[in-house]
Here is the input.
Amino acid sequence: MRLCVVSHVVHREHGGRLWAYAPYVAELEQWAELFDEVVIVAPRGEGAPRGDEAALKVGKARLAAIPQAGGRGWKKKLGLAAAVPRMALVMIGHMLHADVVHVRCPGNAGLVGAVVAPLAARRRIAKYAGQWSDYMGEPRTFRWQRRLLDSRWWGAPVLAYSGGEENGRVRPFFSAALTEAQMERARRAALRPRTGRPPRVLYVGRLTRAKGAGRLVDACSLLRRRGVEVICDIVGEGEARSEFEEAARRAGLEGRIVFHGGRDLEGVLGFYEEADALALPSRTEGWPKVLVEAMAFGVPCVATECGLNGWLLGEGRGFTVPFGDAGALAEALERLLLEDEGARARRREACARFGQQYTVERFREELRRLMEREWGVRLRRGVAVCE
Here is the structure.
């Protein structure tokens, strides 16, 4: 059985292996476990892997490169329009020889893939790895992709971070990056008391304005003015890193806000073990894995009021705040960090109980069941067999 994956994620070929953004790789490996061969239709990146990228462990995956096109400005948009015919031809060529086609949205490649897949593949499934509901400031193409995937044209299952019950072809789904073995590490960490002072606040993610790490710098400055001393660990890379580092320097928070750069998953787990709270002040989120992972380690969280965050942090697991409101973020963090030991223990227990449900093994099993139900395939020992 051959799987064809269409993705906008940049892949690098280095040391005889494929490398890409680590959380994406962790999920893609679970898809690959169900197939004999995987072809990934995606842009090819140049240079060595970045700190936040990981190698695909499955040796049966190969890359079919498409142009890396798109972006802001009319020149880049014209470049994307010119690249679409070539992208479509490469996609169709590989879709015709695949047993299952998996299109990942939102993204330019996903939009083209969602248009052409119904022409070339009977067994197809989409993943919308973003916020399924509309939100202020989102690109128009994201809304187009949701409408397309929810239309008769697509006519196939869509995995979405939508919450609630199934709605037509849209199936509420989740994502996961931690294995059962890593979850055992989380269980041990969740039971250990965190008594170090000052408390540690953690951010994990891309360093962009939309992800909101700059507001966390502002919130840490506000906490210091209130007499609440914290250490803030910022893990990730992105085009706004130098801007955020300069903001921390101007606020006199050098040594208090530490930029660690990109880390692989094992490196990130060490930060979860030491954190007292995690902040995710992003504009939008689909299924924010960092929230679920941190909670598995017993770390309460603060996130913005978007997507599924309110549900994920309900029942005492954390707080949500408006996007861009550094004052509200500082207030919520102060509540978490300064509450009494009994309340903190109860909150950590609630977080751990919720977060530890979501393992990659469960994710793979849910995919297995969906395929069996939709297409009459049997999955035995990780191999898909058509009946």
Summary: DSSP finds 13 helices and 18 strands in the chain. The longest strand covers residues 124-131. The longest helix spans residues 74-95. The mean pLDDT is 91.
